[in-house]
Specification:
By secondary structure, the chain is α/β, with parallel strands linked by helices. The protein folds into two domains: 156 residues, Vaccinia Virus protein VP39 (Rossmann fold, 3-Layer(aba) Sandwich), CATH 3.40.50; 90 residues, no CATH class. The protein has 15 helices and seven strands. A seven-stranded mixed sheet has the order 3-2-1-4-5-7-6, with helices on both faces. The longest helix has 23 residues. The radius of gyration is 22 Å and the shape is globular. It starts with a helix and ends with a strand. The structure holds S-adenosylmethionine.
Length: 349
């Protein structure tokens, strides 16, 4: 006789052409095994799950002018894309230090780089915040070149367990280093309405900051918690129902993106870390040392521009970028995450 459990087993529902969850994107996470899947995703201007596409690679290498035998720092290792390109320029001579504050992604990148043959002779990787760059220089010596590619990696955004995105539900966390600080849900609960509004304006120029802050506080007053990414998204959607229907969807989507960005910057103290890094940079660069910084929103770019200008005026940088460098139109079209990228450089006197 047939097993009754088998008879009544429900057929697995077809979920459409796109994988429903991060875990389901198994093909995209095995680029060696499924190159055609990776190619298809990239052709659409998207980034395959578990991968990060490096931005402005050609422009950055032109700025840094890396030569074999030099010592350099990748202050934001991420997936290791820029690191690999810089290592190629060193041609097994010299040394590259590569750091990242994220203890979750770092071991995966370390493994990937080791498989490519980059061992301790040429590469040192370390889990650290770039605001502590002066501690590293004690063992590395001064740097001939430094790169910082700010913000988050695609791997961080795509992993719902880390709470960086509302596209798939997850805990409202948003920490690049979950071993430090407090998750976004705790941070939000600790803020007043005025503080939330200020955070949304300062970190993301959010035009609907007032309405969103009011709706968040109202939710707490009702006795509800905001502990997941979709709970916060729902509150923002509800708060912006007053927007005319013709533009509401687009405007709400942007407000959600900006609000999550603002909260992420707050939770990770991103502007503080960048400020400290910019302040310490002149002391860790060798004479003629070159620095390239890739930022993704106006708050970051303003800080970079101001610091470079200040140290240039002081004679500490001999030359700085006069104009902002943007990714080529071709790159912006082929990688949606490149559209907001802003690149600046400086050279130590
Ligand atoms: C845009 S990704 C870098 C991608 C990388 N350039 C590549 O080609 O794969 C930014 C990385 O910087 C890290 N990061 C952000 N702020 C940091 C900080 N203050 N100190 C160190 N790492 C940081 C993030 O954890 C993330 O992995």
């Amino acid at each position: 006789m047939e097993n009754p459990e088998q008879i009544h087993q429900r057929r697995i529902r077809y979920r459409g052409t796109h994988p429903a969850s991060f875990e389901a994107k198994y093909k995209e996470q095995q680029p060696d095994k499924y190159p055609e899947t990776i190619e298809k995703v990239m052709k659409k201007g998207d980034t395959p799950a578990g991968m990060h596409r490096s931005i402005c690679v050609k422009e950055i290498l032109e700025i840094l002018q890396i030569k074999p035998g030099q010592t350099g720092l990748d202050a934001t290792l991420g997936y290791g894309g820029h690191t690999i390109e810089m290592l190629k320029c060193l041609d097994q001579k010299g040394h590259l230090y590569a750091i990242d504050t994220d203890p979750i992604e770092l071991p995966h990148t370390q493994e990937r780089l080791a498989k490519l043959g980059y061992d301790a002779k040429i590469l040192t990787t370390q889990n650290m915040n770039f605001s502590d760059i002066d501690q590293l220089v004690a063992k590395s010596g001064l740097f001939d070149f430094v790169l910082a590619d700010l913000g988050v990696s695609s791997m961080q955004i795509d992993n719902p367990k880390r709470g960086f995105s509302y596209k798939t539900d997850g805990p409202l966390d948003l920490r690049m280093n979950p071993e430090m600080g407090m998750p976004a849900s705790y941070r939000l609960k600790a803020m007043s309405q005025a503080e939330i509004e200020g955070m949304l304006i300062e970190n993301a120029d959010e035009p609907h900051a007032k309405e969103i802050a009011k709706a968040i506080i109202l939710e707490y007053q009702k006795g509800n918690s905001i502990s997941t990414t979709s709970q916060l998204q729902k509150i923002i959607v509800e708060a912006l129902k007053f927007i005319p229907p013709a533009i509401r969807d687009e405007e709400t989507k942007k407000a959600c993106q900006r609000s999550f960005q603002a909260l992420r910057i707050d939770v990770n103290h991103e502007l503080d870390a960048l400020y400290t890094f910019l302040e310490k940079l002149p002391k860790v660069l060798a004479k003629g040392g070159r620095i390239a910084i890739l930022s993704f929103h106006s708050g970051e770019d303003r800080l970079v521009k101001k610091a470079f200008k200040y140290y240039h005026k002081e004679g500490i940088y001999q030359e700085i970028a006069m104009d902002l460098i943007r990714p080529s139109l071709e790159e912006q079209n082929s990688n949606s995450r490149a559209r907001s990228a802003k690149l600046r450089w400086a050279i130590k006197a």
